[in-house]
């Protein structure tokens, strides 16, 4: 499993357009207004952090809600200073109350500028000028951002902090249950740490959520093989090879199993497949 270098600014302009559904012209205007100061990458391309994406989404929504730009700038500056590295945005939304920016966390509300809580008294009419800014499209974008960021964090943490890596992979899966790469990495991590029952459950949950996939089936077969469940491992290797006949390690491991279970003809056939694939890759 390759481990890319973690970046504090992993998102380019196409990512912002895709995740936030933000037109490039609007993005340029928000940058020009000073809402964010992106880094520069190859060919001087803009690169944005996770916090930048939160700020861009919020700035656009507050502008649409007719909050004065001066208040938006001040509120976002203070809010950004309070953001953790990976904010669970499903637990936070922003509102425009008159011409103020209000942050809602669960049942609590507080002013983004002052940090003071906003209290609702029994019998008091709800403010008519409150506009919730977290639309279904924004929640979908939040989930994609959290899944991407948490998955990258998990990879970066695997070698030195496996508990934190596990939590990161679980966050990615919670944000996007179809995130197969996070499910595979979590299963592999659990297997490597001797938590075989949890690893098997993780792989089988992934099969239910994402369907058959060669690497997923291969990893499950390796686990079953390690557990001594040889016939089941054999069937799972075969299923992996039906998904991807070019999976060299699958042919190799299956050849060893067939040999161990007294089926030399099948063992030779898979070993021949393995050698052809390895020689072709040289």
List the helices and strands and how they pair.
Blueprint: E1 11-12, H1 13-20, H2 24-32, E2 39-40, E3 46-48, H3 50-64, H4 69-82, E4 92-97, E5 100-105, E6 108-111, E7 131-132, H5 136-157, H6 162-175, H7 180-192, H8 196-210, H9 214-226, H10 230-243, H11 248-260, H12 264-281
Antiparallel strand pairs: 1-3, 2-3, 4-5, 4-7, 5-6
Features of this protein?
282 residues, alpha+beta, disordered N terminus, three-stranded antiparallel β-sheet, single chain, Serine Threonine Protein Phosphatase 5, Tetratricopeptide repeat, TPR_rpt, Tetratricopeptide repeat protein, elongated, 60% helix
Description of the molecule:
This protein is of the alpha+beta class and 282 residues long. It folds into three domains: 11-134, Multidrug-efflux Transporter Regulator, Chain: A, Domain 2, CATH 1.10.1660; 135-200, Serine Threonine Protein Phosphatase 5, Tetratricopeptide repeat (Alpha Horseshoe), CATH 1.25.40; 212-282, Alpha Horseshoe (Serine Threonine Protein Phosphatase 5, Tetratricopeptide repeat), CATH 1.25.40. Helix content is 60%, strand content 9%. The protein is built from twelve helices and seven strands. The protein has helices at 13-20, 24-32, 50-64, 69-82, 136-157, 162-175, 180-192, 196-210, 214-226, 230-243, 248-260, 264-281, and strands at residues 11-12, 39-40, 46-48, 92-97, 100-105, 108-111, 131-132. The strands form two sheets. Strands 6-5-4-7 form a four-stranded antiparallel sheet, covered by helices on one side. It has a three-stranded antiparallel sheet with strand order 1-3-2. Helix 5 (136-157) runs antiparallel to helix 6, helix 7 packs parallel to helix 9 and helix 8 packs antiparallel against helix 9 (214-226). It starts with 10 loop residues before the first strand and ends with a helix. The relative contact order is 0.07.
């Amino acid at each position: 499993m390759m481990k890319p270098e973690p970046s504090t600014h992993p998102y380019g302009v196409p990512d912002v357009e895709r995740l936030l559904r933000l037109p490039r012209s609007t993005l340029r205007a928000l940058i020009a207004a000073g809402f964010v100061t992106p880094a520069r990458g190859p060919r001087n391309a803009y690169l944005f952090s996770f916090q930048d994406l939160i700020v861009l989404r919020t700035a656009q929504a507050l502008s649409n809600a007719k909050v004065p730009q001066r208040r938006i700038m001040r509120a976002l500056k203070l809010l950004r200073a309070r953001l953790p590295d990976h904010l669970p945005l499903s637990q936070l939304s922003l509102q425009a109350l008159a011409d103020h920016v209000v942050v809602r966390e669960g049942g609590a509300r507080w002013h983004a500028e002052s940090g003071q809580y906003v209290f609702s008294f029994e019998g008091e009419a709800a403010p008519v000028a409150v506009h919730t800014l977290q639309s279904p499209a924004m929640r979908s974008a939040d989930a994609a951002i959290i899944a991407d960021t948490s998955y990258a964090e998990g990879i970066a943490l695997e070698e030195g902090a496996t508990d934190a890596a596990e939590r990161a992979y679980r966050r990615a899966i919670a944000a996007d249950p179809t995130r197969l790469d996070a499910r595979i990495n979590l299963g592999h991590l659990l297997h490597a740490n001797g938590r075989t029952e949890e690893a098997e459950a993780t792989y089988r949950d992934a099969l239910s959520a994402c369907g058959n996939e060669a690497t997923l089936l291969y990893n499950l077969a390796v686990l079953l093989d390690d557990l001594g469940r040889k016939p089941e491992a054999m069937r799972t290797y075969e299923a992996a090879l039906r998904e991807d006949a070019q999976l060299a390690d699958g042919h190799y491991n299956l050849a060893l199993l067939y040999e161990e279970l007294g089926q030399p003809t099948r063992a030779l056939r898979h070993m021949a497949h393995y050698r052809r694939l390895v020689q072709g890759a040289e």
